Amino acid sequence: MAIFSTLTPVFLAVLCILIAIIFKNFKKSEKKPKTDSKPPVPSRPWVDEDLEDDTEINPGEDDEELAESEGDVSHVPFSLPRYSEAEMLHRSQEFYALMNGRRSVRFISPEPVPRDIIENVIRAAGTAPSGAHTEPWTFVVVADAQTKSEIRRIVEEEEEINYKLRMGEKWVTDLKRLRTNWVKEYLDTAPYLILIFKQTYGMHPSGKKRTHYYNEISVSISCGILLAALQNAGLVTVTTTPLNCGPQLRQLLQRPLNEKLLMLLPVGFPSEDATVPQLSRKPLDDIMVFV
């Protein structure tokens, strides 16, 4: 007992020193900045990962996986019909009048449309410019009734989740005035569905990847030409970008992994009872800046 009583003050002193050292080290570690920590990523549940913009070259791409650039392309003479100023003005006014009549129509007739017309409007879309002339687009035309019904099922299931959970109150409120919701009857009734896929990269005959520069911009331009061609042919559509449906639709249509869904267009004639929102377009002064 005497020995224990003698050692107790020493033991307490040592214990206090150890506690002081531990506390000091803890404070130091607290002050050190966490160099490996990443800033928090803002939550954006409405973003479709399948539509993320990947149009630039990936600097991390393994050069061994990429095909070599193709050889030089020969150039040929080019000419364009030259119209008088009066004819140019007339043609530009006619085209504007044609396109100004374009509307997004959600009431589409099941009346058949000749396949040749669909092939021609897609040929027109395929004339769009593209980065390094890679033409990174695939147009999947669906006429089969069972496949259209399956597409509708996939889209409506995801769209209901979008409206209720992903899109947020403001987006849903902004759409109310257009009387649109997750029910997409036109996916069944339209004689054709055109699904436009962007090819994020191509495949060379050697099996190596071929870079598709600015693939999303290129395919978007192609979609614009397609809309104009449909209007010119007297057909209607509504541009739809089914959020988070891309992977399921790609699998359903047996498309390769390098293709990602950009847009879905139901195509046909307007139904007899079709209506559209009474909207106006911005005047020229609001959309053009002349320098």
TrEMBL record:
GO CC entries: plasma membrane
Q: Which reaction does it catalyse?
A: bromide + L-tyrosine + NADP(+) = 3-bromo-L-tyrosine + NADPH; L-tyrosine + chloride + NADP(+) = 3-chloro-L-tyrosine + NADPH; 3-iodo-L-tyrosine + iodide + NADP(+) = 3,5-diiodo-L-tyrosine + NADPH + H(+); iodide + L-tyrosine + NADP(+) = 3-iodo-L-tyrosine + NADPH
Q: Which Gene3D superfamilies match?
A: NADH Oxidase
Question: Does the record's keyword annotation contain Secreted?
Answer: no
Q: Where is this region: Disordered?
A: 30-75
Could you tell me one molecular function GO term of this UniProt entry? iodotyrosine deiodinase activity
A Pfam match is Nitroreductase
- Which keywords does UniProt give here? Flavoprotein, FMN, Membrane, Oxidoreductase, Transmembrane, Transmembrane helix
Family named by the database record: Belongs to the nitroreductase family.
Q: What is this protein called?
A: iodotyrosine deiodinase
